[in-house]
Design goal:
The complex is a heterodimer. By secondary structure, chain A is mainly alpha-helical. In chain A, 79% of the residues lie in helices and 0% in strands. By secondary structure, chain B is mostly helical. The two termini of chain B are 31 Å apart. Classes of the chains: A mainly alpha, B mainly alpha.
Amino acid sequence: MEGETLALLMCASFIGMLFAGVPVAIALIVSGFAFGYLGFGMTLFNLIPLRIFGVATNYTLLAVPLFVFMGVMLERSRLAEDLLDVIGFLCGPLPGGMGLAIVLVGVLMGAATGIVGATVVTLGLLTLPVFLKRNYSKPLACGVICSSGTLGQIIPPSLVLILLADIMAESVGTIFAAAMIPGLVLAGIYLVYLFVFGLLRPDMAPPIPKEERALKTRGQLVEDVFKVVLPPIALILAVLGSIIGGVAAPTEAASMGAAGSLLIAALSRRLDWPTLAGTLRNTLNISAMIYFILIASQAFSLAFRGLGGDALVESMFEAVPGGTTGVLISMLVILFFLGFFLEWIEISYIVMPLFVPILRSAGVDMVWMAILVGMTLQTTFLTPPVGWSLFFLKGVTPPSIKASHIYLGVAPFVVLQVIAVVLVFIYPDIALWLPRAIGW
Amino acid sequence: MEGANQTADPPETYGDDLAGRVARFFEAIVEWAGRLMMLVVFVMVLLITTNVILRYLFSIGPVSLQELEWHLMVPVALIGSAYTLRHHGHVRVDILYDSFSGRTRAVVNLLSSIGLLVTSVLIVWLSLNFVYQAYAIGEGSPDPGGLPYRFIIKAMIPLGFSLLALQAMAHIILYSKRALGR
């Protein structure tokens, strides 16, 4: 059989296994080995140990377990939960105030962890009961939780951006700086939408009642702000600042974030043995899950390239009209659809390397492209029927919430996302201004 | 990523027959290796933090301590994968899977465990030579002051995939029982 036919069959079998419920990494490694063997025999895989060693020893990827540690520590020590509570009170009197609070916390937590699963699950567990108690409309509540929890994908420091920087051969600091304004624009669009929604339909997004707010004195609130809001925010700003300011490499800053979360938890007397052990267990599980997908994707991509799969994609793109812009748009569309059923890690490591050389030689700005890709991938997290954020939320909701509530709720946010991507596409300066302004 | 694959599967019952005892023994090995890795994660976090502090405050940066950072990451990534498999932490797409019957799920898991076992054994076999070459030439760090005996760290590849193979075998026993309805 022709190599390229095998490459197509390999992709088909991978997607087939994926939908049958085979774990992503196992589907990758099995389809890679099976079809690579059919095409070449075992010789192709002599390179595999070196590739695996390359992934496991990559210095930038070392930031992954450190950021995971920081996020899990903030979550398990319940610092994140208290943060939410206080911000909810601060936003209390505004229409749609709770929703505004969730978006703000989503931004902060997302920035802190960069782990969508952790953020969406935490926000869902902690805020959905409150939303329901406050008589928010169910779809609105679900939409807010999913979309703000997903903001962490684009607001630095995020794992997606670190991997994209690696693939595009750009510095992580540049990519982080470039993602900053688009991420904030997106958060701003969300806030405006919620505010307008709250004004027009106060019945669906009622503010916290006056009587309840009266129970908490101003003094208590100020004290809480100092005790639970400022430390995590200071930590996040310190980590972000040192990366973007170029003082520390992401891995170094991540280690400071990890140690800082440990310190904050200890100072607020939330650090006990179960918290630490649980944090280490989750950190190991989540990090190993990510690394195993990266390792498995080495077998897949080795076979895919060996079988001429990249030439296949390239020839497909030569047929696209509209020159470079056409290729760029069609790439984003393809990523969007792939994002329905692939994890962003596979998309980043398997699909992106096929596009990068073509677009780089066409003179496309790699930093701009990284941001467009990041935002597109983030959108796919929210898109029904297969969005990772939707699954994460559904895993933790009470039975009164149906999948249809979640699907209905995220729909307007998907539209807002697409608007933001189009804005960055038309005005590249939204992404490129900040890195230029600070001299990259 | 957590929570994505929490499905209402029945608790793990290996039974008391020989196969069940073998499976539990394999899982115990993976479990203890994983707990050791939890400790290594903590040491790694502290080590990287210490290195950063030493460098920025005292301008000390021994190559050996820098290299130790990723020397710790390699076992965490490779041995951790088996531990994550043991605790079903590897993410899967569950749109259809959620609607499958218990037996269909067992069949899916049985087949994927067999696939993983075969590929893991192949990778162990492929990587032995990789490790042996590093041993034979006495490979160490190319940088002065770096760590010697690089074959030990390269040996984490066959070790990690051996543990994955053990865990896959335990799951084959579990899911074949479940698929047969026992």
